[in-house]
Amino acid sequence: MGDSGESAHFKKMYDRVSTLAKIGVWECDLTTEELIWTDMVYDIFGIPRGNPINREDTLRLYEPNSRQELERLRSEAIERGTGFTLDVRIRPHASEVRWVRLTAEVELEEGKPVRIFGTKQDITNEKAASDKLQSIQTEMIHLSRGSAMGAMASTIAHELNQPLATISSYLTGARRRIPNEHLTPDLSECFDGALNATLRAAQIIRSVRAVLGKSGSKKREADLEEVLRQAADLALAGSENVLISWDVPPGLAVYADSIQIQQVLINLIRNASEAVQSGPCQIDIKAWPKHTFIEVCVSDNGPGLPIDIIADAFEGFASGKSDGLGVGLSISRTIIEAHGGRIRAENVPGRGASVSFTLPQPADTQS
């Protein structure tokens, strides 16, 4: 086979591989910025093969973040005489987005960069498969954590129910043993408060166990302000230096399990009060209609959530407390999502942490 025959054969082999791998070769003259592409690069960018191309026009096809990162790495590579690899997003057409893996090397002559060259490969399908796999893995982790928390909730409920029942029995027995003439109104109020708190704790344990165990919750129409204020009273019992401001319009109703929603708010208020180490803790609770939902926001004047956990604040076992288990916010997310709502956290500059969640309105009030 002659040289021309071998060249044609090798070109045919290259074209086959290029088509199968969706990969093309490119080159750019650093003096003139003239681009040279193989056919596959034209196909990847949706430009007819052989059409005149210039760098400025092709850069407009890159998504802004990808274009910015590409230009940064390109400048560094030219300055240092090195190369780089980068996955970028391009938009060949208004309704189409593709992922491209770009490799680049700088060619030097007498120590000076003269051209940059490399490959461009369409990895859109690979990226979609990778994203789907990651989504499945995330869901599996979420289910695994949910299962672990469900088992833990069942264990805790089993272990706590007996001592709570015992506390209730002792309180009832103690009250009966006190002669009526010695049972002052203040003492009677203390007994009533302790018994109610004990019963309330048992209700909360059963409610959390129910939501983690995926059993039915007792959802009904409820007055949101009443639900929130009752939860605040429970959360702040015995607390000092905690101030709450309210911005909850009267008459807002939600379709929810009141006990479960109160558990969410109790957790958020306690987190806020524990976050403020010095000075009074200021907690702001707001609520307002949002489409067919009601949005509730709880914010504080603390230091905010740690940066390293804020993205995963609602994942199981992520805690900003040195002695925390990291399940409170995760359980809160489980409760809110079981109601069809969403919950999110953020830090407010110059303020503290802010947690917002949504709850559905009763069907007859949705507009």
UniProtKB/TrEMBL annotation:
Superkingdom classification of source: Bacteria
EC assignment: 2.7.13.3
KW ATP-binding (keyword) present: no
Keywords: Kinase, Phosphoprotein, Transferase
Domain PAC, residue spans: 84-135
InterPro entries membership: HATPase_C_sf, HATPase_dom, His_kinase_dom, HisK_dim/P_dom, HisK_dim/P_sf, PAC, PAS, PAS-assoc_C
Enzyme superclass (EC): transferase
Name listed for the protein in its UniProt record: histidine kinase
